[in-house]
Design brief:
Blueprint: H1 2-9, E1 20-27, E2 38-41, E3 46-49, E4 55-61, E5 64-71, E6 78-84, E7 88-90, E8 93-94, E9 122-126, H2 127-131, H3 138-142, E10 148-153, E11 157-162, E12 165-166, E13 170-174, E14 177-178, E15 197-204, H4 208-211, E16 218-224, E17 232-242, E18 247-257, E19 261-272, E20 288-300, E21 304-318, E22 337-352, E23 357-372, E24 380-394, E25 401-416, E26 426-441, E27 444-459, E28 475-492, E29 495-506, H5 510-514, E30 516-519, E31 524-527, E32 535-547, E33 551-575, E34 578-599, E35 607-620, E36 633-644, E37 648-660, E38 676-689, E39 692-701, E40 726-734
Parallel strand pairs: 1-7, 1-8, 13-16, 31-34
Antiparallel strand pairs: 1-4, 2-3, 2-5, 5-6, 9-15, 10-11, 11-12, 13-14, 15-16, 17-18, 17-40, 18-19, 19-20, 20-21, 21-22, 22-23, 23-24, 24-25, 25-26, 26-27, 27-28, 28-29, 29-32, 30-31, 32-33, 33-34, 34-35, 35-36, 36-37, 37-38, 38-39, 39-40
């Protein structure tokens, strides 16, 4: 099997050589040609734009069925499947005007449909739209998406929360491979930078059918920035300045492409001082520094497409332990601190046959994490190495039905070299096999699938049995069968209904199985449980959407039942001055949803009014509330779009008010949180100077310098509020 996969990955397959091309003209409803329409073949990582006459050409395309996407601001995006059986194919497309944002192709689901065609409701957000909100980190931007929150430690460390689930229950994908970075720890951030990222897709609910263990709560899928169009060379420079943290974010990238080859590279540097609270004091040692480098090289022809990408991320993170103490504007981290080095290497290959294709993703991730208490000698040093593979075979289309079968797996090792051990030296091996199909007729779509997984965990014994920091050796195997079923239909011309039911699972992680010591982040003594069972859940979702030229409405509801939910519960004893907690299991349930609307009133075509409300409740079987459940929130935005002669285009001004409600539904060891309202302001656009142009945006976040503490802030128990007012200036040049 390994030889076969390698053989296919290299593109050595018996397929007919072809030099197919597709050409055509893009027009509007009045048959007028449209200049600047973007045409992309996502699988081949290539694209082009229409000329003054609205015409386009794509060369060197494979035989068989290929998907093309046609998009242009102000028009509805179209996704076309064409069957290339001759050298030259003509495909003319008429685009329909649409006032709202463009529809997007969803990569994180199996069949890469436009969201309007997709069975699952997947949230899609471009990095450009998130950055225009003036957030300082990637996770802060993600937390503005309905249904997504963050567990934060200051401004430098944030962990995503999807509908009340976080940590190992949320899977993160970057460059097409799963990111493994010791995500069981609350103080362990994503280790990803938004530079060189095109967009993010959020699956809110179990996605084990496609991703296996740890996708029980949902998936964050980051899409890398696109390569340049053929025969072009582009350079991009961006700079952001942050008043509160005296911070700076600098990024420089370049990319170029020929007809077959593609190359890109981007480096960025991010540095911040301690953040300031509304009384003008700074929270000591919340400063951090980040270096990030991304590069990619690709090749495609009429037989196969191959893309190799690499991401290096270095984090120097201060750990706030003394609250508001020494006041300094220094960006050099003090002790205690973390040093984290992430290497992510991915290789995507697609081999085309006459009526089918094979898609193979290989990934290697190395996470090197150290903690320094009072010197440059690491007290804690963990190195996690992960190799994963994902092979999907797209079967020939049968009538209106598309089918995929695939295998996935992972080999992972964890080694310790410091004095302290959070988890033992261990290895994890995953293997999964799945099949799924999608059938579409008229406005109806049905999608279903089935999957089997096995995870094996083995660890080494460490220390003296019974003493703090010791671990017993374990050898565990976990199996799970999972299924998903979804249905989408148009109840009316503009009214869409989606119904989904899916199961998911999560094998217990090493911390839950083996912990035996004080968890510094929570100031409690934690004891693992080697007898924990696999978490197994089933979630039902309903999504209702109405779309017209000037009004959009959505309502999402979900109910998530989890068997054998794992959590730490107090034992009632004290050890070395710390309360003792042990990992146990109980059935649990989470329910809630999101609702919102978007008004684009006519004839005020420059005005947008948006509002959304999100809610989630989590309870154990005995009626007690689950920990780390985000408070309800209500976001309202007024957005104006404008143009000033020829020197300012794509202008925008936004006023946003977010009200976060009281959170009184807390677990036994949590504290309640008060409500608060934050007001944010943003303005920007594209400025033209001669033949040059650059994007600029100016943001004021927490404009009225409100003192507040987010419920999921890990500094809440120390009485430390979140960041006060911050002004953000961003510039972006593309040559």
């Amino acid at each position: 099997m390994k030889k076969i996969i390698l053989f296919l990955c290299l593109g050595f397959s018996v397929v007919l050589h072809a030099q197919n091309s597709v050409t055509g003209t893009i027009t509007d409803a009045k048959s007028q040609p449209i200049k600047g329409v973007t045409i992309t073949a996502p699988e081949l990582h290539k694209g082009t734009t229409t000329d003054d006459n609205g015409t386009y050409t794509l060369n060197n395309l494979p035989n068989g069925t290929l998907k093309l996407t046609f998009s242009y601001i102000g028009f509805a995006t179209q996704n076309k499947s064409i069957s290339l059986v001759q050298k030259e194919t003509v495909l003319n497309v008429s685009l329909e005007e649409k006032a709202f944002q463009m529809d997007e192709v969803i990569v994180s689901t199996a069949f890469n449909k436009l969201q309007s065609q997709n069975v699952m409701k997947v949230e899609h957000a471009s990095m450009r739209s998130l950055q225009q909100k003036g957030t300082s980190t990637l996770i802060e931007g993600l937390a503005t998406i309905p249904g997504v929150s963050q567990v934060s430690t200051g401004t430098s460390i944030g962990k995503p929360v999807i509908r009340g689930l976080s940590g190992n229950r949320v899977l993160v994908y970057s460059q097409g491979v799963r990111v493994e970075n010791q995500q069981f720890g609350d103080e362990h951030g994503l280790g990803l930078n938004d530079a060189g990222v095109e967009s993010v897709e959020v699956i809110k609910g179990p996605a084990s059918l496609l991703y296996g263990s740890d996708a029980l709560g949902g998936v964050l899928y980051f899409n890398p920035e696109k390569f340049a169009e053929a025969h072009t060379f582009k350079t991009n420079f961006s700079q952001k300045l942050f008043s509160n943290t005296l911070g700076s974010n600098t990024s420089l990238g370049l990319k170029t492409s020929t007809e077959h080859w593609k190359f890109s590279a981007r480096g960025s540097y991010n540095t911040h001082s301690d953040y300031k609270v509304p009384d003008d004091n700074r929270v000591t040692n919340t400063r951090y520094n980040e270096s990030d480098f991304k590069t990619g090289i690709g090749y495609s022809n009429a037989k196969f497409s191959s893309v190799l990408r690499y991401n290096y991320n270095k984090l120097d993170l201060g750990i706030p332990e003394n609250g508001i103490a020494e006041q300094t504007k220094s960006k050099k981290t003090d002790y205690p601190k973390q040093g984290v080095f992430n290497h992510l290497l991915s290789w995507n290959n697609i081999v085309y046959f006459k009526n089918s294709k094979l898609d193979v993703d290989l990934g290697y991730i190395e996470n090197d994490r150290s903690e320094f208490e009072d010197s440059d000698v690491a007290n804690l040093h963990m190195k996690l190495k992960t190799f994963n593979y994902d092979a999907k075979f797209h079967l020939p289309k049968f009538g209106k039905m598309e089918s995929i079968v695939g295998i996935q797996g992972m080999h992972q090792t964890n080694t310790n070299s410091g004095e302290e051990y959070l988890i033992p030296d261990a290895s994890t091996n995953d293997f999964g096999v799945f099949g799924t199909f999608n059938c579409e007729w008229k406005s109806n779509v049905i999608q279903a699938g089935l999957r089997y997984d096995n995870r094996k965990i083995t660890s080494n014994a460490h220390g003296i049995s019974g003493e703090e920091g010791s671990f017993e050796a374990i050898n565990k195997s976990y199996d799970s069968f999972n299924a998903a079923l979804g249905y989408k239909t148009n109840l009316l011309e503009n009214l869409t209904l989606r119904l989904n039911a899916a199961s998911g699972f999560r094998a217990p992680n090493l911390a839950e199985l083996t912990s035996n010591g004080v968890h510094e982040g929570t100031n409690r003594y934690e004891i693992g449980n080697a007898n924990l069972k696999t978490e197994q859940n089933i979630q039902t979702d309903i999504n209702l959407e109405y779309n017209s030229d000037h009004f959009e409405f959505f309502a999402n509801g979900f109910y998530n039942h989890i068997n054998h939910y794992i959590y730490a519960a107090p034992t009632g004893t004290v050890l070395d001055g710390n309360d003792v907690f042990q990992y146990i299991q109980n059935d649990a349930m989470l329910y809630g949803g999101e609702i919102g609307f978007h008004i684009h009133p006519h004839p005020l075509d420059w005005l947008h009014l948006e509002s959304s409300f999100e809610n989630v409740t989590g309870k154990k079987q005995n009626g007690d509330y689950l920990p780390l459940i985000p408070a309800n929130s209500w976001s309202n935005t007024i957005r104006a779009e404008f143009k000033i002669k020829k020197w300012l285009t794509d202008g925008f001004a936004t006023l946003n008010a977010v009200h976060t409600f009281d959170q009184n539904n807390v677990s036994g060891f949590e504290t309640r949180s008060n409500d608060y309202t934050l007001v944010n302001l943003g303005i920007g656009g594209k400025i033209h100077v001669g033949k040059s142009a650059f994007d600029v945006n100016l943001n004021g976040n927490n404009l009225f310098d409100k003192t507040y503490t987010a419920h999921l802030s890990r500094l809440k128990t120390d009485g430390i509020p979140n960041m006060g007012r911050t002004i953000v200036l961003g510039l972006n040049f593309t040559i």
